[in-house]
Every structure is written in structure tokens, then in C-alpha cells.
Design brief:
By secondary structure, the chain is of the alpha/beta class. 38% of the residues lie in helices and 14% in strands. The N and C termini lie far apart (61 Å).
Length: 456
């Protein structure tokens, strides 16, 4: 039986519709509820696995009455047509809980494009009788335990949802955008996607976009030819080539400059790279996963990140929650980090008292999982005895930091940093390249700080 994903029409050219349909796919694919998307001609653009009956024959460009009502001719007047005929309609419900239509439609909702026009609709159907439900084949979930998914740990609802989404996107070749605060484990999630994909035996290449100047970043990613610039004494393969048939992970993509973003967009659109100083383009076959600790959608609105690149990167968006959004997972993480730290430092396995565990759960953890991991390791190394208790960790146990002190500290750092940037620009007569070199930061970082501090 063909896979339902192969029946989906190519996503519409409109970026808003594209993003909305991708979001619906992410939410609906793992549900037992029947969900489908149709265009204005009632062609099936997308339908989740639950939408199909056990006897349905799936084919591309199928009409809704063929796919769900098993008819060769159109139905009579469909109540869902109101979604397209009346722009003010926000929802259409079928009387009798969906019994009034041959397809079993219950509700239909409009999907508007960039111009506000209704170009598609999402439809919810009534459940199928058990005799018509398609059996779902069992598959490898990538979990060795109920609280594990690859190297990710969690039992909270938000993490279970993330695990489900990760399973769905792993074998795809589409670009993935991972967003989340620093320390939430974005690179670990990227590695998990790669490990679960059919590219698992090919390279996984990591690029820290925020730590490299624009010119060096371009050379690292695309390669260069001999003589392209001073110091280019031999031809050099770029990281896109190194990741051939594998995965390239572009970390902190928000820290790149507009010029580099334009070049990366061309690579993603054309599927080929041109080494710095070269004249011939090379086809690339690496999957792109990018990550950012900033909200790219907000950066697009602020016109500091290219909208067209954002839509190219965010075909399959994933969000890693902050640790404070999944506090029920903290005991699992603590026990895992304690065991790993004890093994690494040749210590007997330590136990964590209930009081200490409560303190761990209540702490703010602004550095998220990474901060928790480092804190546990420090506690294991600097204490003795079979138990970890609050008094052994810090005086008075782990307590939330005073918000006013944190704010004052951040403000002092910001003022000092702004003053140093202004001074560097004065010394270099406004030359940003020289100023970045003087400050020992990348030009991309300098540009971000100039925008953040409002320095003209």
C-alpha cells in the first residue's frame, strides 16, 4: 500500500499556506483523529494516516469525494463550500455530528494565504468504524526505555510530543529548524534526527555559525580554490561536501549576516554550491538542520533575518522546551547525570535525597539542561558519602537567584559592553571589520550587538 505522504500535492507556493500545512502535518500525523486539507477544487492536499479507510486506494490529486466518500461523481451541495464562498466564515459544522455528508465531515476551517484569501481548508471527520480502521505496522521507535528517545530524556507531555514529531521528520530530506533557549539540547536533537534517519551511516557535520566571521564561514561551508584569497594555498573542500549524503547542522543560524543569508538561500534553492574563487558549481546532497536560540519569526518581523530563508529553513519546525516548562523531567535528568558523573569519576553511585530533588525541581535553571548537568557533576566531584543532600551542594540548598540582582548584573554588563563597542568604533573610525577584530568577536556578532544596543 503506498504511503500517504507520497500522495500529498507539492506545498503551495504561498509561504503562509506552506507553513500552515506543514504545521498541520506535524500536529495531525500522529493523531487518531481524521484530518485532511483540501484546496479550492476539493483536491486532497494532505491527509493523515487515520483519515484513510482500510480499503481506500490512495492516489495523487484525488478528489475528496473519491478519497473519503468512495464516490466516482461529486457529492451534492457540500456544506464546506461556504468556507470558500464567504470570507467571513470561520468554521462550518455539519449537522448531526457529520452524519449528513457521505464523507463524514464534521467541521471545516479556512486557511488563508499571505493576501488574506481563503485558498485551502482543513477538515475534521467523524471517527471510522473499527472494521474500516487501517492497521498501523509496528516500527522501531528509537527508544530503549519509556523515558528515552535516542539520547533525549523525558516523560513530560511536551517532550513526548517532541519525540512523536521527531519520529515523523527523521526520514524526510526536508530542512529542519530547531528553536529553543541555550542549553536545551538543540544539537543533541539534531544528532537524534540524524541517527534515526536513513543517513545515519553518513557524516554528521556541525557548524557554529555565530563563532565564524562571514568570509571564513563562507569558505568553511562552500570550500575555496587555490589562490581565492591570501593564504588559500591549496583547494579546500567545504563542509557541505564533507556532509555529502549525510546531515549538516547549522547552529546559531540567527547570528549570520544578511549577505551570508542571501548566499545560503541560493544554496538551498539551487541545491548546489560554488567554492570561493571557483567558477564551477557543485551539486550537494546533504540534509540541512539549523538551530537558533532566538525566535526567527520575530527576527523576520524586525527585518533582521530574511523571510524567504526562514521559510526555506523552517519546512519542518521543532521547538525544544526550556527546563522550567518540563519540571517533571528534572528527577529523570538528575538521576541520569548523577549516574553518568559517578561512572566518569570512578565513584560509587550516589543517591539523591527527596529534599535535594525538590530543590532541583524548584530551581530556576536559566541555563537549562546544560546548567543542570554541570551543577550535578560539580556536586558529585566536590562531595562525599552515599547521598547528595542540599547542605552539600550550596549553603542553604539550591535557591532561586534574586531577580533584582540578576537584572542589575545584566544591565551592568550591557552598559560596559556598549561602551566598549562605541570606543572600538571610534578608534577604527567606524570601520566595523576592524572594530570586530579589535573586540575579538565575529562581524556577525558585532552587527547583532549594534542592533541590540541601537548603535548607529
Amino acid at each position: 500500500m503506498p504511503d500517504s505522504e507520497n500522495l500529498n500535492e507539492p506545498a503551495p507556493a504561498d509561504p503562509i499556506i506552506t507553513a500552515r500545512i506543514e504545521a498541520i502535518k506535524q500536529l495531525a500525523q500522529g493523531l487518531s483523529d481524521r484530518v485532511a486539507v483540501m484546496d479550492r477544487s476539493f483536491n486532497v492536499v494532505y491527509a493523515n494516516e487515520a483519515a484513510w479507510t482500510a480499503t481506500a486506494t490512495r492516489r495523487s490529486h484525488a478528489k475528496c469525494y473519491e478519497a473519503f466518500a468512495h464516490r466516482t461523481d461529486p457529492c451534492g451541495t457540500c456544506p464546506a463550500i461556504k468556507v470558500f464562498e464567504a470570507p467571513e466564515v470561520q468554521c462550518v459544522s455539519c449537522s448531526g455530528g457529520g452524519d449528513g455528508t457521505a464523507c463524514g465531515m464534521q467541521q471545516a476551517f479556512p486557511l488563508t494565504d499571505t493576501n488574506g484569501a481563503v485558498s485551502s481548508m482543513v477538515v475534521l471527520f467523524k471517527p471510522l468504524p473499527k472494521s474500516q480502521v487501517r492497521a498501523t505496522p509496528e516500527h522501531d521507535t528509537g527508544q530503549s526505555r519509556d523515558d528515552r528517545f535516542g539520547n533525549l530524556i523525558g516523560l513530560s507531555p511536551v517532550m513526548r510530543q517532541l519525540f512523536d514529531m521527531t519520529r515523523l521528520v527523521a526520514d524526510s530530506s526536508a530542512t529542519v529548524l530547531i528553536q529553543g533557549e541555550s542549553g536545551t539540547g538543540k544539537e543533541l536533537l539534531a544528532k537524534t534526527i540524524h541517527a534515526l534517519s536513513n543517513r545515519r551511516d553518513r557524516p554528521f557535520v556541525v557548524v557554529d555559525c555565530g563563532s565564524l566571521p562571514e568570509t571564513l564561514l563562507e569558505s568553511e561551508l562552500f570550500g575555496h580554490v587555490k589562490g581565492a584569497f591570501t593564504g588559500a594555498v591549496v583547494n579546500k573542500r567545504g563542509l557541505f561536501e564533507e556532509a555529502d549524503e549525510g546531515t549538516i547542522f547549522l547552529d546559531e543560524i540567527a547570528d549570520t549576516t544578511p549577505t551570508f543569508q542571501a548566499k545560503l538561500l541560493r544554496v538551498l534553492q539551487e541545491g548546489e554550491i560554488k567554492p570561493v574563487g571557483g567558477t564551477r558549481s557543485l551539486k550537494i546532497h546533504a540534509r540541512v538542520i539549523s538551530a537558533s536560540n532566538k525566535d526567527l519569526a520575530q527576527l523576520v518581523k524586525a527585518k533582521t533575518f530574511r523571510q524567504d530563508l526562514y521559510y526555506r529553513l523552517a519546512v519542518l519546525p521543532l521547538y525544544l522546551p526550556a527546563l522550567r516548562e518540563r519540571r517533571e523531567d528534572i528527577p529523570l535528568l538528575v538521576r541520569h547525570f548523577v549516574g553518568a558523573s559517578c561512572a566518569r569519576h570512578n565513584q560509587a553511585v550516589r543517591q539523591v535525597s527527596e529534599k535535594t530533588m525538590r530543590a532541583f525541581r524548584d530551581a530556576p535553571w536559566p541555563g537549562n539542561v546544560r546548567q543542570l548537568q554541570h551543577y550535578v557533576e560539580r556536586a558529585v566531584v566536590t562531595t562525599t558519602g552515599p547521598w547528595l543532600v542540599c547542605e552539600d551542594l550550596v549553603p542553604g540548598g539550591i535557591v532561586p537567584e534574586d531577580e533584582s540582582l540578576r537584572s542589575a548584573s545584566r544591565e551592568a554588563v550591557a552598559q560596559t559592553e556598549r561602551a566598549r563597542i562605541v570606543e572600538a568604533l571610534q578608534v577604527t573610525a567606524g570601520n566595523r571589520f576592524k572594530a570586530a577584530k579589535l573586540l575579538k568577536i565575529s562581524r556577525a556578532s558585532l552587527y547583532n550587538k549594534l542592533r541590540a544596543y541601537g548603535i548607529e
